[in-house]
Amino acid sequence: MTLRRSVVLGHGSYLPARVMTNDDLTRMVDTSDEWIYQRTGIRRRHIAADGEFTSDLAVAAARKALASAGKEIADVDLIIVATTTPDQTFPATAVAVQAKLGMQHGAAFDIQAVCSGFIYALATADGMIKSGMARRVLVIGAETFSRILDWTDRTTCVLFGDGAGAVLLGVSDEEQTLDDRGILTTHIRSDGTHRDKLNTTGGPSSTGTVGVVHMEGREVFKYAVGMITDVIDDAFRSTGLSAGEIDWFVPHQANVRIIDATARKLDIPSEKVVRTVEDHGNTSAASIPLALATAADDGRIKKGDLVLLEAMGGGFTWGSVLLRW
Description:
Blueprint: E1 5-14, E2 18-21, H1 22-26, H2 33-40, E3 44-47, H3 54-69, E4 78-82, H4 93-100, E5 107-111, H5 117-131, E6 136-144, E7 162-172, E8 182-190, E9 198-200, E10 213-215, H6 217-239, E11 248-251, H7 256-266, H8 277-280, H9 287-297, E12 306-313, E13 317-324
Parallel strand pairs: 4-5, 4-6, 11-12
Antiparallel strand pairs: 1-7, 2-3, 6-7, 8-13, 9-10, 12-13
């Protein structure tokens, strides 16, 4: 049968030049490289420079995605930016990206689902392509999470970093099977009863301030693996595929313990798991596209590979995407 499907045409990423190691953090808070690495798997993270905004990171990643696809900004109908750290409260960071890329047509908007943002953005873009509302969509995850950290709180400041990743989605109107390229299925969830377990201490409506990150780490870990595997099971049920058929598992890079526990529960071999958390830290909505770009650029992810994406973030929000690269 003929089925309109979203296909990844290109990918790109950007990391700020400044690298902050665990040893650097020991001069700021009471911690150690061993303490951080054993609990998180993180060794280093990138930090945006003064005057370097989320939109700047997003634009750099977007340009690489366009170049990878051999397309121009004139070929794009829509820009979706997933971010928790916008340049301004409004307008959307996506319109800043639109302007910086020289695009005066189409539309641009942000999605805020914290660490699940890129999954939500892919699901949204996929739906718009399938409905015929767009043919090519730049989907970007970009964060300057360092701007909302309490640098005296060792339980949170050691976790996060800055960066951006992007994919260009295009439409395929050809006859499709599960062996053909494109997004096969998307699943997103949320449960607001857990919103106080991972949040910020401020907001325009409540305090008139941005606030800083607050996290109940044990509670987040308690729910994470079960919620993640729930939406992955949904992906397998909807396609008839199984974990044994996955070529690459690209999870949100929050914590190596969560990544490994999820892979074990799904019976996905360690060698099929893409891990970038050691070098990037948790870059929230940028985490998955950064990991995708890393694995595609180094030759691990190849055309035709079956790739499973998943994330969980504040809200709680969580979701999965199963795609043929």
